[in-house]
Amino acid sequence: MGKIRCIGILTSGGDAPGMNAAIRAVTRSAICNGFKVKGIYRGYDGLINDEVKRFTTEDVSNIIQTGGTILRTARSKEFETAAGRKKAFETLKKEAIDALIVIGGNGSLTGARIFAEEYDIPCIGLPGTIDNDLYGTDNTIGYDTTLNTITQCVDKIRDTATSHERIFFVEVMGRDAGFLAQNSAIAAGAEAAIIPEDSTGSDQLIKFMERGIRKSKKSCIVIVSESPKCGAMYYANRVNKEYPNFDVRVSILGHLQRGGSPSARDRILASRVGVGAIEALVQGQRNVMVGIRNNEVVYVPFVDAVGKRKPIDKQLIKVLDELSI
Q1: Residue 198 designated active-site
Q2: How many helices (DSSP H) and strands (DSSP E) are in the chain?
Q3: Considering the domain boundaries, does residue 67 fall inside one?
Q4: What CA–CA distance (Å, rounded) separates 27 from 204?
Q5: What is the pLDDT of residues 16-46, one digit of tens each?
Q6: Based on the structure, what is the number of domains in the chain?
Q7: CB 124 within 8 Å of CB 99
Q8: Same domain, 179 and 301
Q9: Using an 8 Å Cβ cutoff, are 147 and 172 in contact?
C-alpha cells in the first residue's frame, strides 16, 4: 500500500454502547490529521455491497451520547469466504479507501486480521464488545455501560426476590467470559456468580447451595453467564428437582443489556482509542488493536488480541465469596 489518504470505518458484530463515540473520535481525529473518511454501513456486508458514504465532522455531531451504532452492524457470513473478502477489497479500491478501522469484538477483529493478511490493507481494530473478553486491554467499549445496566436491573429484581423469599437466577451476556457476571454480582450484592472461568470440576450449584442459601437465607440472587447448555434455566430446573422447598425464578436480561446511553467511562475510552487508531496509522502501524492498559494507550497485535484468552482476576471470586455470607 502507498500513502494513506482515505480511511474507511465500520462497526461489526454485536452493538455496544460507545460505538458512536468511537465513530465520532475516529472521524474527527482523521479529518484533523488531513485524511478523508468514509463510513461503511452494515459491517463487512456493507463493505461487500458498497454501502459507503463520505463522512464530514457534521455527520458525527450529536452522537456521542447515543447507544447503538449510526453505521448499523451485521454479522457477515459472506465475508468469511474468500470470494466475499475479494468483493470487499474491490469496494475498497473503487472507493479509494487506503486503510480500514474496524470497531467490534473477537469475530470482527479476526475478520480484519485475515483480510489484512490477504490484501495488504492496513487495518486497525477498536475493542467494541460488551463482554470485555479481548486480550490486551483492561476494558472494552460498552462493558462499563452494560455492567451498570445489569446492576440496575438486579437491584430491581432483588426487591421482589426479598418480598417473596425467592431465589432468582439472573442470566447475563458473556457466554465465554464471566467479567459481566462476576463484577455485576459484586456490584449488586448478589450471593453468587456462576461463570465459565470458575468451572474447575466442582459443581458450582451445589457449592453455592451448601455454602449460602441453606445456612440462613430464604432469598438470594445468583448471576449466571449465558450458556446454551447450562444457563439460568438449567440451574433453576436443577434447584426445582434437587431442592424443591425453594421458590425459584429466572430472569434473562437479554438484549436490554446492549442498549442505552453510554457511560462517561465508555465515552472516554471510545474517544481515546478512536484518536489512538489514527495515531497508529500516522505512525505506520497496521494490524493492531488499540486498547487501554494501566491508563495508557497500547497497540496489541491482532494475533494476540483475538488469539489469547483474557484471564479474569480470581481475586474477584474470593471477594464475592467473602461478602455474600
Answers
A1: no
A2: 11, 11
A3: yes
A4: 46
A5: 999 999 999 999 999 999 999 999 999 999 9
A6: 2
A7: yes
A8: no
A9: no
Q: Is 307 helix (H, G, I), strand (E, B) or coil?
A: helix
Q: What is the spatial order of strands in the sheet that 52-55 belongs to?
A: 52-55, 36-40, 6-11, 99-104, 123-127, 288-293, 296-301
Q: What is the pLDDT of residues 165-197, one digit of tens each?
A: 788 999 999 988 999 999 999 999 998 999 988
Facing residues of 32 across strands? none
Q: Which residue of the set 98, 131, 144, 198 is catalytic?
A: 131
What the block records as the C-alpha cell of 287 is 494490524
The answer to whether the beta carbons of residues 162 and 256 sit under 8 Å apart is no
Residues 131 and 209 in one domain: no
Distance, in Å, from the CA atom of 119 to the CA atom of 287, rounded to the nearest integer, reads 12
pLDDT interval class at 229 (50, 70, 90): confident
Q: Is there a contact between 298 and 269 (Cβ–Cβ < 8 Å)? A: no
Residue type, 312: I
Could you tell me if 238 and 252 are in contact, meaning their C-beta atoms sit under 8 angstroms apart? Answer: no
Q: Which long-range contacts (CB under 8 A, 24 or more apart) does 280-287 make?
A: 280/124, 281/4, 281/7, 281/35, 281/99, 281/122, 281/124, 282/33, 285/122, 285/124, 286/99, 286/116, 286/122, 286/123, 286/124, 287/112, 287/113, 287/116, 287/117, 287/122, 287/123, 287/124
Torsional sign, CA 204, 174, 179, 324: negative
- Full-prediction pTM beyond 0.85? yes
Contact at 8 Å (CB) between 16 and 129? yes
3-state secondary structure of 71: coil
First-to-last CA distance in the chain?
60
109 and 14 in a single domain? The answer is yes
**Pair 129, 273 in one domain:** yes
Question: Using an 8 Å Cβ cutoff, are 85 and 113 in contact?
Answer: no
Share of the chain above pLDDT 70, in %: 95
- Residues 125 and 288 sit within 8 Å (Cβ to Cβ): yes
